[in-house]
Amino acid sequence: MTDLLNGLIHLTSMLVLPGLAYGSQLAFGALGVTLIFGVLRFSNFAHAEGMSLGTAVCILLTLWLQGKGIALGPLPTALIGMCLAVPVMALVFIGTDRALYQHFRRINARPEVFMIVSAGVMLIMNGAIRLIVGPDGREFEDGERFIVTAGGFRAWSGLAEPLVLKTSQAMTIGLALAVGFALFLFLSRTRSGRSMRAYADNRNLALLSGVDPDRIVRLTWVLVAVLSVTGGVLFGLDKGYRPFVYQQLLLPMFAAAVVGGLGSPLGAIAGSMIVAFSELALTFAWKKALGYLLPAAWAPEGLMQFLSTDYKFAISFLILVVVLLVRPAGLFGKPVK
Amino acid sequence: MNRRTTLLYAAMAAVLLSVALLQSWQLALTIVNLCLISAVMALGVNVQWGVAGMFNVGTMGSAAIGGLAVVLVSAPPVRAAWAAGGAGLLASAAILVLTAGVALAFWRWFGSRPLLRGGAVAAVLFSGFLLAQQWFLPATAAIEAVDAASAGYLGGLGLPVALSWLIGGVFAGLLAWPVGRLTAGLRSDYLAVATFGISEIVLAVVRNEEWLARGVKNVTGLPRPVPYESDLQSADGVQTLALWLGLPLRDLASILVKLAYTAWFLAVLGIIFWLLERLGRAPWGRMMRAIRDNEEAARAMGKDVARRHLQAFVLGSAIVGIGGAMLVTLDGQFTAGAYQPLRYTFLIWVMVIIGGAGNHRGAVYGAFLIWFVWVQAETAGLWLASAATALLAPGNPLRTKPGPASLRGDGAYPGLRDAFRAAWTHP
Description:
The structure holds 2 protein chains of 2 kinds. Chain A is mainly α.
């Protein structure tokens, strides 16, 4: 019985909680990717850099707040910084759209052209990040780091395996639920949200019904700013901010959006969880967990690790391949030709 | 060739000649060699984007696998490593092939029951992979332990290096085929995401699998298709030529070696260019133009658009692979850490777009122009900075610290140009 409990605690602490947190962080990104794809009709290669830039802005604001002596007690000050960074990033995104994407929308450019432009935006943002915070990583988490510590849990339960819950993990999962819920309420209940969906569904019909396209575009970028700053900051709090690690989120985010069906918000969340848990489960060393859960005679000898963590992002590609083979439209998507 | 093209090419030649006269012949030839390689890669991208209209974000992957081919084909074999881990590696490969076969058979058998089929195939793949690991991990550990400082990998086949360029093209084409096949007929976004993914995976394999090509420890001293400078310096003919030209012997030898490379690359570029131009005039090229012009109409005429796109994609990737192999040969080393999307994907893109997508002459010209600007920007920046501050007093802080120094990127803050150049490197 203790073995079973130990095994379950080990899995919860090492696999389930990190998976939920990582999946939520991916979901923030994938929701942004899928919104841009649905409304603006292109794959945004600058999305990961946008998240990183948002986090960099948030770090600057957080440092300024900390300098003023403002803190949130047990919660990280970055939460306030995040709220202040959202309008900044919304302006950045809308400005980029005005300067670049708008022109190509007007001349009805092919989707490939938008992708090339977004790749250019990615490089410019990359340079901007280097100018703002430089290429090195930095820690910006303050407040209580842990809600449940390893030592505390061991003393409380008397089990050999510790349960660890970081503040950033709990905050990520909580905020993901809250923001996700708010987004669905916005898209289904408000007039603006519904006109956005109408515009995404059938552009001409929406325009005929009097939807203002410029307003929809601005609204989309504001939503993208909220999602990418929140996701970026939470990822940075959880893993420590390193500006160019975000680049490696691009493939998992795209994979999550494709798995769920490009353009479908619900699909983006489901896809993110699938990608996150497959990544963790396939690079997880199952030896300890199986040792607890299986009878002693069956305990495995090797690490029982399917792939080394160096190939973590390759798994999202693998999932992408499987989805494209079996169901190219994704779980919740309509077939896109 | 019309008059404008001739003029543009003549201007480029004049600029390169002025580099040779103002800076040095070695520098000019180095730039020309890299321009030629870039031109080959640009032709590859031009076949995909210009001819077929396919957006490939993974040019870097094709270039890297072409470079890997140079190591696998032409590096000297490491027999001790083969003895240490060859058998284990072959055993795990055999298990993987067997697994794939069984998985395929299951896929066919359970065709009518998708859930059972998915489960069975996944189970077979998982267990096969775990089983293969039992031999793979010890074998690679043994290989990497063999003379780790200088070898620690399987080595190549020891074949002539020029052959590896062809193999590099074949490798890149073989890698491109499944990617193109998978995304054929879908929106271009899927191809973009898939090529982006596959090129990152190729890079991860090249960086992490030390038994294959030493990972980030680099393979150096690859064989070359031209003589060594030291051999040339001792040759009689070269010594006479040096006396006659009045050049130092060492400079002449290095110029001759670079010229030999230029000849090789020019030949390859010429052949590829000629083949592509012929292909463009052949029925295939007419069909591609028809598809590009109006896909629906071409489909209605019975043309298999997805298949033509796939052909162009594989052909383009293969050409980029040849370019990647030539680049590694010119460097004489395979540096896994040097592959960056900015340099190997976006720069090539810029070359094709500047040159005018669809036009092979334009792509070659774009490659020359953009590569020249890319390498000479630093010199020009330094010259501009020193010219702009020339009138200031020698001790003026603008002249010493934040001015030219920060343009070089070693100032108090990283310079913009360095920022862009280093962009996309993996931490």
